[in-house]
């Protein structure tokens, strides 16, 4: 039992790395039901147009900072992921090589510079870039750049050396050791201790055995064998190279359904005009949108039940909500549960936002607002509007792609740019109405007051755009 479970997980590991290495371009996810926790890291398709822009930016910065003779250009995007923060944080792993253009050529011409044909002159490097992009300010920043020479280009993945037939332990270990030695040389591995090296050898062996099984079962043209990931366990691989996209099922803890509104929705409503909304806040470079969405909702609920508008603490959730991932994303449904367990929220002043996870410093004595339960709203936009007008601002989540480029007006992106299944950001619905006949949702964002219209985003209402109707919820204060 134990063995087969283990085997399964290792098989999965190899499939993952094979997909990753060989067919990554098919991984655009456009029609799959991927709902990540708002704020979490998401894999980006290599063909994504914004990714191309980010890659060009990274190339430019790389060339400005390098002291080589030739301009260098990306030969291959190995992997790319993004996370919605204030703007978007991209993580790219790319290969770069020398072009025939000398460093004296204008950077603008880079796209037409051809690569050196000779691998020794191409001098391929693998680089990790982290880029922080704030499109509405036309601002990009390199947060991290780490490069190392790529392994020699010879691509022989197939393992023919390992015996499949029973062999004496000695023969086997000689084969294994020589394959491992080759791997260590090819990928320039160094291990801190003998123990570590032994452990890596065992992982390497397991991965190779799995690769052989896969090879024998494969009915297509895939090849399996040693890759640069061969000394990593599945878990290590996933955390280093894949997005921590949450499992697609069990993601959304079912909440109690909210009772329907008593009356139909009035033509328009805006909770800002009724004092239920605190000033716009700023999540900074942390995937904590979910915490801002939830505090915004509770601020409204507390105001409507207790008559006092407080500004509540997101940092308490970042530090103390163990059901969510702090700056790595989270779900409003989890956050309500965590707040109930903690006993309530402190104010913004008592538990100030820092934008990174710290140890939990919550004290029950400072609780300023509590909640008693939480509810999930209908997915019908008219019913959501009616509920909002009667009960207060609503926590929602959506695909934030269009938000990245938004300046003002009512945004109505094409569906293909705003896949309702790729939810990556959580915000607060504070009202709705019509602007010159165009129905909209008024959305409080958490990217500062200099974003959009004084910190707000207006999205077309009535065609479930960007998945805006998919994750609507509210806390309940008794
Ligand atoms: C190999 O790795 C070591 C440290 O891990 C580094 O100092 C060295 O430059 C690397 N060599 C190559 C050829 O990548
Ligand atoms: C709501 O929760 C608060 C704090 O946990 C508690 O003191 C209060 O009794 C609850 N109210 C109801 C009606 O359950």
UniProtKB/TrEMBL annotation:
Residue ranges annotated for the Cystatin domain, each copy included: 36-148
A cellular component annotation (GO) from this entry: endomembrane system
Disulfide bond as UniProt keyword: yes
GO annotation (BP), single: immune system process
E.C. code: 3.4.22.41
Keywords from the named record: Disulfide bond, Glycoprotein, Hydrolase, Lysosome, Protease, Signal, Thiol protease, Zymogen
Top-level taxonomic group: Eukaryota
Class of enzymatic activity (EC top level): hydrolase
Primary localisation category: other
Location of the Peptidase C1A papain C-terminal domain: 265-476
Gene3D superfamilies: 1.10.287.2250, 3.10.450.10, Cysteine proteinases
Domain Cathepsin propeptide inhibitor intervals: 180-237
Role, per record: Thiol protease which is believed to participate in intracellular degradation and turnover of proteins. Has also been implicated in tumor invasion and metastasis.
Family: Belongs to the cystatin family.
Protein name as it appears in the record: Cathepsin F
